[in-house]
User: Fold these one by one.
Assistant:
Number 1:
Amino acid sequence: MTDGADTGVRKQGQERVELRIGLVGTHTRRDDLEALDIWLRNAPVLEDALERGEVALVRADSPTQSEAMGGELIQDIILVVSAEMARSVAENAWRSVETWLRNRRRFAGPEEAPRVTLDGPPQGPGAGLSRDTDDDAHGGDDEPGEV
């Protein structure tokens, strides 16, 4: 599915925001991405919104294909949500990502350094929602209105 695909979340006159969740630093990236996708779909804080159609969770080709091996396309998880719900969904999804990552790191090999990022759009609604598990300070939790 491409980034511009109609996910059914958008209502007439309602702007949507795409929050991209990327995963790097593991030897089993495809399996880990699938596990994270399932984890997010079953997260109690997102499950109801997914069932009501307020949030869509899809996979799309990653804009950074540098990790592609053997021609395999790298994918990211995309949360598509209304602009009004973007901050709340990003915070809830991020808490679920952090829990999943703590569990994944327990099983990581010594040469693995699992890392997850959440990126909102660079400007407009949803800007400033980016998070990175490598950020120790405050996880990119900008105040509303900061870009």
Number 2:
Amino acid sequence: MTSGQTTNAFICLRVPSALVDALVDLQGQCEDRVDPQQAEHIHITLGFLHGADEPRLAEARELVEGGAWTAPAIRLSGEVRHGSWNLQNDPAYHYDKNLVQKGEQVRLGVEQSPELARVHEDITQGLEIVEDGFWPHVTLGLAREDFPVADVQTLNLPVVSGPAPSVDVQREVSTAEFTMLIRKDLPTP
């Protein structure tokens, strides 16, 4: 980045590879309706850094490098939600709890644990990130078309679980592409 330039970045937990593989299989069951999240980009977002300049990114790198976290267990909760941070800024968009709309994300909830809560709290407090209602989740993909929410709520979700392998800081290149700024491997309990 050049001086004065800003970017959007985020801090996230990587998802264990066995769960990623199971999610890729699940994506195959609904690929006619959901454009799948690329396997290498499946993660749990802990916090966003909107319009971050180089000093802000350095702050995030330092916090993650110095973090003393134990790998939280990652397991799907069974809850499915949908929505879009991008679409919600469009005055023509109206959320419908019964309809997944074209362009919305299909999100699968992740069980909360004390370890996950600690990593999230350390990140958000350490970087003074203010977010309403943290709900840990992975994004299955983006809706290709409108369809009833019941179609995804009845999917047979994977029961595979495992420890999160790392905390990453990534920079957004586009809505579907990211570059790695730092990765901190997490010790398993």
Number 3:
Amino acid sequence: MSQKPRAPRYADIFKGDPDKEAKAKEVWRDTIAWLDESGLLNARRIEIADRYARACAEYHVLYPIAAEEGPVKVGPNGGDVFNFNWSAVEKLNDRMAKFEDALLISPKAAQDKVAGKPPEGPKTKADDYLD
């Protein structure tokens, strides 16, 4: 791309939450800069970078709460109940990993890109002849 994309309006998206806003802006800038330097910046990855920045912002704020509370909390009746903050953090972590793979910024995806290897799939009979 010839010109850098405009950053989403994270101040409007995360109204009243300056921590999320700041983290989203930071992740957006870093991700777009990395994609641009790597020659990977395109319209599709710009959209994914926005979603990645939003997920990172949510994770950044929610993780300390979930880590302090742990996976199980004391429920209203005194018994153990599942902590939904813990579950949300796990789901955000999985989502961020998928975004990193799509953006080619995860260590595995970046290594495959550098090596020029196509993604590995199951071995077929034709592979013996292609090697």
